[in-house]
């Protein structure tokens, strides 16, 4: 996602944290909110020192296939990223600086896990090479999903987070259940559906928003709920 998507995920998660988790996170982040730190992983992207974290934002594997760690990118991927962050945060051997760094990354990567095109295919780099038109402008499908729909919908991250009550209590406990791998496959299914309904060169606009803004909002909310579940499990 772009900045607003990540911040919405962080803001929604904040509302699902237990008191104890909130307190522990506040200490680690020196008072900063999850929304504020959610974009940190993008801010360090251009820094040579953090090059190794580039492949951690996504995973690519063929449609109809499964995620196979032995065939995965040796430089890591979003599954490796999330597993590593959780491990550092659970460890009693890591410093609070290291924990703070990996907490900021975890907030970001749980967001990206819910952007369907981040569970993509290598051929077009998660639709970064899939050219489309967005209203009157040329762009790519990845960017439509990362930012264009959220921008055109014209909602700030706090508005996105404030209107997040689309799920019942029962649905929320269903959403929290399952593993990170299950959540990844849920995104993959959405990704396959997006490819089945979008063609190269398509002129996307209001009709596309009508079909897919609800999916974007649902994914942001699920990301927030699941991020909170992981954090509550780690800290409480
Ligand atoms: N670069 C290569 N594949 C990608 C993907 N699926 N998402 C984002 N960036 C990528
Ligand atoms: Zn992206
Ligand atoms: Zn990212």
TrEMBL record:
Keywords: Disulfide bond, Endonuclease, Glycoprotein, Hydrolase, Metal-binding, Nuclease, Signal. Pfam families: S1-P1_nuclease (PF02265). InterPro entries: PLipase_C/P1_nuclease_dom_sf, S1/P1nuclease. CDD domains: S1-P1_nuclease. This is S1/P1 nuclease. It comes from Jejudonia soesokkakensis.
């Amino acid at each position: 996602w772009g900045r607003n998507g990540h911040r919405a995920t962080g803001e929604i998660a904040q509302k699902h944290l237990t008191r104890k988790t909130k307190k522990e996170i506040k200490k680690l982040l020196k008072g900063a909110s999850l929304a504020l730190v959610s974009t940190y992983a993008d801010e360090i992207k251009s820094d040579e020192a953090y090059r190794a974290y580039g492949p951690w934002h996504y995973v690519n594997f063929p449609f109809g296939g499964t995620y196979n760690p032995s065939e995965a990118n040796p430089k890591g991927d979003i599954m490796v990223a999330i597993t590593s962050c959780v491990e550092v945060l659970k460890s009693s051997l890591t410093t609070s600086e290291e924990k703070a760094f990996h907490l900021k990354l975890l907030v970001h990567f749980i967001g990206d896990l819910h952007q369907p095109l981040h569970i993509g295919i290598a051929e077009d780099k998660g639709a970064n090479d899939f050219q489309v038109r967005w209203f009157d402008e040329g762009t790519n499908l990845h960017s439509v999903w990362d930012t264009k729909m959220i921008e055109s919908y014209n909602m700030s991250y706090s508005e996105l987070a404030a209107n997040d009550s689309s799920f019942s209590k029962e649905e929320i406990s269903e959403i929290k259940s399952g593993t990170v791998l299950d959540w990844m496959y849920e995104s993959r299914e959405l990704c396959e559906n997006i490819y089945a309904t979008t063609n190269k060169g398509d002129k996307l606009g209001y009709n596309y928003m009508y079909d897919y803004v609800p999916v974007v909002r649902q994914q942001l909310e699920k990301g927030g709920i699941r991020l909170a579940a992981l954090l509550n499990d780690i800290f409480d």
